[in-house]
Amino acid sequence: MIAFIRCGLIVVSLFLIAACASEQVLVQSEQPNVVERQKPKIESVDEIDRAVIPDIAPVNVQAVTHTSVVQSYQKALALISDPAIRAKIERRLAGLAMVESEEMQVQGETVEQQRAALNKFDSTILSYKKFLKDYPDHPDNDIVYYQLAKAYGLKGDLETSDKLLAKLLALFPDSKLAAEANYRRAEYFYSSKKYHIAERAYKQVLKQGSESKFDKNARYMLAWSLFKQSEYELALDQFTVLLDELAPTKAVYDTLTKNQKALIEDSFRAMSYGFSYQEGGDSVVAHFNKHGKKHYESLVFSSLGLLYQSKERYQDAADTYLAYIKRHPLAEDGPDVYARVIKVYELGRFPSVIIPAKEEYATRYGIHSQWHQAQSSVPETHTLRLKSYISQLASYFHTRGQKAKKAPEKQKEYFGKAIVWYKTYIEDFPKEADVAQKFHRSGDVYVLLGETHKAAAVYLSAAYEYPDYDILARSSAGYSAVVAYQTIAEASQSEADQRAKITQSMRYASEFANDARSIGVLVDASESLLKLNDYEEARKTAQSVIVRLLESGKSEYSIDQDRSSLSWQPYSTRKHRRASWVVVGHASFELADYPKAEHAYTQALRLMGKKHKLYPSLRQRVAISIYRQGELFAKNNENQKALDEYSRVLVVIPEADIKVQTQYDITAQLLILKQWPEAIKKLSAFRKTYPKHELSGGIRGKLIYAYEESGRWADAANELTVLSNDEKENQDTRRKALYQSAEYYEKDGRVDKAIDRYRTYAHGYPDPFVVNLETQNKLAELYKAKGETNKRKFWLKKIIKNDRNAGSDRSARSQYLAASASFELAEDDWKRFTRAKLTLPLGKSIKVKQKAMQKVIKKYTSVADYGVAEYSTASTHRIAEAYYRMSQDLMDSQRPKGLNALELEQYDILLEEQAYPFEETSIEVYETNVARTKDGVYDQWVKDSFSKLAIILPARYAKEEQVEGYAEVIQ
C-alpha cells in the first residue's frame, strides 16, 4: 500500500457503533429458522489490515498559476548574485515544482496525465539534487532532503525515499522534521511488512513527545506493528494509551476530527481481534484491571462481542457481554449489554438459558434494583424491554406450572415464580393497560397454589379497579373473587369470612348485573345471610332476585362482538325463583312475618314437584306459619282470629306435624272465648284420640276449667278426684286436686261426697297445717249442717288438739278456730251447768252445781287463754255469768219445809252469805270484760256485761251518762 496516497476514511460515531451493534443483534434474532453453523476461524494476523491513515501534512494546493510565479523567480535569479538569496530562490523554485508535481498527480485522470505527473516529479527531483550539490552545507538542507524523499515517495520509489529520510536523520538529528522523517520511514517499513523495524521507527516518533503532530498516528501504527508481530497484549496496551490520549473523557470525543474518530474506531476493531486471540472477555477484564477503568470499556466489550457474533461464536459473545456486566454492574448501558446476551442465546438456540437470563435481567435491572436507583434517568427502550421480559416470565412459569401436574413440588415452584413476576409487573408498571390482566392471572395461580385469600384480593383488583379491562374478563375475575371468598368462608366457617363473601357477592351482582351468574351469586348471598341470621338483608336480597327475574324473564348473557357489554338471553328462571322464595319464606318466618312466610313458602311449593326434597318440609313450614299467625292473634287477645288460624292449619295442611298441638291450642281458644260446650267437646275428643300424648296431661285441667265456667261442678269434681288419685302427678298437685274436688262436690250439693273428700284430705295431708285445719273446720261445719253433732265434736276436738301441737305453724287463724271449737265445746258444759238445779237437800245439790260451775269456769278460762278477743269476751262473760247464776241459784234454791218466819229469815241470811262471794266475783269478772273497751273492744259480750252490771249495780252502771261514757271509750 502506498503510504502517502491520500484516501478518505469512513468515520462513524463511537456511540453510533454501539447502537448499530445492538440493532444488528435485534435484526438477527428476528430471522426465522436460524441454521446452526460451524464456528469459523478468526483471520490470521496478516489478513487483518489497519485503517488507512491520511497524509499528515497534505499540501494546500492553491488555485494559482505557477508559471508566472516561476518566471518571476527565474528573472530574479538571473539578476541576483548574492549566494544566500540565490539559494532561497532556487529552493523556492524547487518547492514550486514540487507543488505543481503533486497537483498534476492529484488531478490526473488519464494514464497520460499520470505519466506527465511522474515526469514532472523527475524534474523536481533534479531541482532538489542540484540544490544539494550547489549548497551542500546549507542549514535548511533538512527540508530539501525531506522534500526530495517525498518526491521519490510520491513517484513510487519508496526505497530511495527511505534512504533520503535516513540521511536527513543522520545529518540533521535535531531537525524539526526528524519526527516526520521517522514516521515516514516507519510507514515504509510497515508497508514492507517489516513490522519489528516499523515498531522501532514509531517509537522514535513517540520519543519526540506529545508536541509532535505525529504522536497519535505513531501510537496507532505502533500498536498495529505490535499486533502484526502477534504481540497482542503489547498492542492492546498501545491502543489503550491512544484511546486515553484521543478521548480522555466522553465529552472530548465529540470535539475530535473525523480522522481522530477513525483512529478510535479502528482501535476498537483491532482490540477486538486482539482479545479474541487471547481469552476473550476475561482478557478484556484483565486488561482493564491493569489499566484501570475507562469510559469506553463498554465499546471494547461490545466490539468484541459483535466480533464473536459475526463469527457465530454465540457463547463467547454472551460471556464477553457478561464479563462487562460483572465488571460494571451499575453501568448505564448495562441493560442494553445484557439484552445482547439474551439475543445471542436466542441466535445460538440456547433455550435452557434464555429464561434464566431474562430472570437475571429483570432482577438486575428492575425498577427496584440497585442499578435502577443509581441512574439519573432510564431510557424508554429499557423500560419497554423490562416490561416485556417480566410479562414473558410470568406467562412462561404460569404455563409450565399448569403442565407440571404430575410433579407437585415442581409445579409449586413454577407457580411461585409466576406469582413473583406477576407481582413485579403489577408493582413496577401499575399504569399499564394490561395490569388488570396480570392481577387476573395471578389470581388463577394463587388458586392453584391453594392461597385463596391472596387470589381473592387480586381478583378484586382485576374486576373493579380497571374499568377499561375487557368486560368479559372483568366479569370473570369478579366471579372468581366470589368463588374464592366462598372457599374461604367454607373453610373457616367464621362469620367475618361469611360477611366478606356476601359483600363481594353483592358487589359482583351490582357491577355485572347482566351476567347470568349474578343471579346465582345473589341467591347464594341471600342464603348465606339467612345462615347468619341477618333475616332482613336475606329477604331483601332474595326479593330483589325475584323481582329481577320476573321483570326480565331472562338470566343468561351473551357478549357483544366488540366485547364491550353483556346482554341477557331468555332462560328458565324456575330454579333461582324457587330458591329465592324459600329464602324469603325462611327469613320472614324468623322475622315473625308469618303471613309473608306463608305466601313465600306457597310460591316455592308451586315451583317444585311433590318429589322435590324440600316439598315435605316446606309444607310443614306453611303449617307452622299459619300456626304462628294464630299465636300472634292469641297473644294480642284476638282470640276468634287465633281460633280461625288454628283451624285453618288443619284445613290447609292436614298432615301437619303440629296438628296435635294445633288441636290442643284450638281448645284453649275455645275456653278463652267461653265456648264451653264446644271446648268440652274438643277437649274430651282430644283426650280420647291422643290418650298417651304428652299434651293430654293438660286436657284435664282445661276440662276442669270448662266445667267450672259452665257450672258443671260435679263433672269438675270428678276430674279432680281422678287427678288426686293419679300417682304420676306430684304430691302437691294431687293434694290440691283432692281439696278442690271436695269444694266442688260441696258446691254441687253432694255433701256426702264432699265430706268424703274433705275427710280423706284431713287424714292424708297434715301439711300445710293451715289448710288441714280449715279442712277439719269444714268437716265440722258440714257435720253440723247434717246434724251429726258427735262427728262435729270429733273434728272440733281435732282442731283444738292440732292447734295445741302446731308449734311454729300455730297462727292467729289456728288459735281462732281452736278458740271457737273450745268455746263451742264449753257451751255444752255451760248448758249442763245451767240445767243443774239446787234442790233439797241443798248441800248435795250445791256440790253438783259447784262441780259443774268449776268445769265451766275451767273450760271458758282455757278459751280466754287463746287471746281471741271474740271468744275472750264471751268466755269472760260466761265465767262472770256462771258466778252470778250460782249466786242467783243459791238465792232461788228451795227452802226447807217447816221453817218459821224467823228460821226462814235466818236461812235466807245464810244463803245470802253463801251467794254474796259469787256475786262479788261475777261483778269483778264482768268489770274485767267491760274494761276491754279501753282497748277498743266492744262486742255483744261486752255489751251484755254492761247490762248485767247495770242490773247488779244499777247505781254505778245504770246511768245513761255512764253508758255514753263507755260508748265514747269504744268510739
UniProtKB/TrEMBL annotation:
Protein keywords: Signal, TPR repeat
Signal peptide (residue range): 1-18
Annotated InterPro entries: TPR-like_helical_dom_sf, TPR_rpt
Pfam families: TPR_16 (PF13432), TPR_6 (PF13174)
Residues in TPR repeats: 623-656
Keyword Chloroplast: no
Protein name stated in the entry: Tetratricopeptide repeat protein
Organism: Litoribacillus peritrichatus
